[in-house]
Amino acid sequence: MLLYLFLTCFPFLFFFKLKPLPPWPIELKFSFASIHKLIKNSFGISYFTSFHSKMSKKINFGSKVDSFREVEGGGGAISVLDLPDLALECIIERLPPASLCSMAGVCSSLRSMCTADHFWQKHMKNKWGRIIGPAAYREWQWHVALRKDSSLLKHGGPTTCLMRILSIVRPSWWFRPKVDDCSKQGSLPDDSIMSWFLALESGEFWFPAQVYNRENGHVGFMLSCYDAELSYDQRTDTFQARYPPHGRRAVAIENNVPWERLRAPPIDTSPHDLHLSDCLNELRPGDHIEIQWRRNKEFPYGWWYGVVGHLESCDGNENFCRCHQSDTVALEFNQYAPGSRWRNKTVNRKEHREEGDEAGGFYGGIRKLSSVEEISTWKRLWPSDILE
């Protein structure tokens, strides 16, 4: 019986030939061990499982082999590109920005994937979404357009009449356009989200946003929020802020501005324009508000925090209060001491526009605050001492 089994199986054993696994890639800039380490450090996976791919891709910068047999026959190599597209995308979307940049430098196929906008949208939103608004996006579009126009001039190409006009009338409040040298981004599309993210991260791109308690909490700006142009300092994880000139005053610059003192402009309008209030009819005592204020009509507006109070004719009893039915709205700025000329202000509910004078400044549009986050931010910035 044993002899029969031996004679039956012997031909198969004789002709069966084990083939070694294909060699690991050596022409990639980093090996599977590097990929394993990258993934482990990026999102905590400590074991990278083996895989078998029916369709294999050759490593040489994204060109593909026709079949697994061609790889098996020699000359090919198994790489991270052998992963199914869905699995590879799942890995890429979990990589942090620095790892995405590293992965994009490996080959043309990975570069094409790692620079795609949908992988960078999440990173842009998570890091910059709270302080980047429509004004910053428009500024980036102007920045890209001017850079393209500058590139045409550099290479002797004709610049359009439209671009010449745009370079003059770009919607920046006080600074002339600055075209930065972003050659470090290589052949990245100028209008890609990755290009914008890297420009923000490097500090090369100055963008409009607003700063609470400007100039390191200068007493004259407590509980206010002013427009500025910002540049990020990756080394300190803070910002440099450039404030527009006030009258004859030169441009003010503040360094080391932390993230918690920044926000995107809540109203998509120039700081020199009056905000048309749409909340006056619904204001009631206890509501939290922001109001535009400027020293004189040459200055830009800042947003100042206050609350809606009771009229002098009201004793504050909720059961008998009729303040919300009056055409006059009482505003209180309780960060100032009782008796201060800045403590109280009344506005007309139906006909309010900009009002004031050179002595007390000019009050503009009003925003009602409904967001708990906005209100808590103002309370967190409340001064330790009552202002005079």
From TrEMBL:
<keyword id="KW-0732">Signal</keyword>
<dbReference type="InterPro" id="IPR036047">
    <property type="entry name" value="F-box-like_dom_sf"/>
</dbReference>
<dbReference type="InterPro" id="IPR001810">
    <property type="entry name" value="F-box_dom"/>
</dbReference>
<dbReference type="Pfam" id="PF00646">
    <property type="entry name" value="F-box"/>
</dbReference>
<feature type="signal peptide">
    <location>
        <begin position="1"/>
        <end position="15"/>
    </location>
</feature>
<feature type="domain" description="F-box">
    <location>
        <begin position="77"/>
        <end position="123"/>
    </location>
</feature>
<protein>
    <recommendedName>
        <fullName>F-box domain-containing protein</fullName>
    </recommendedName>
</protein>
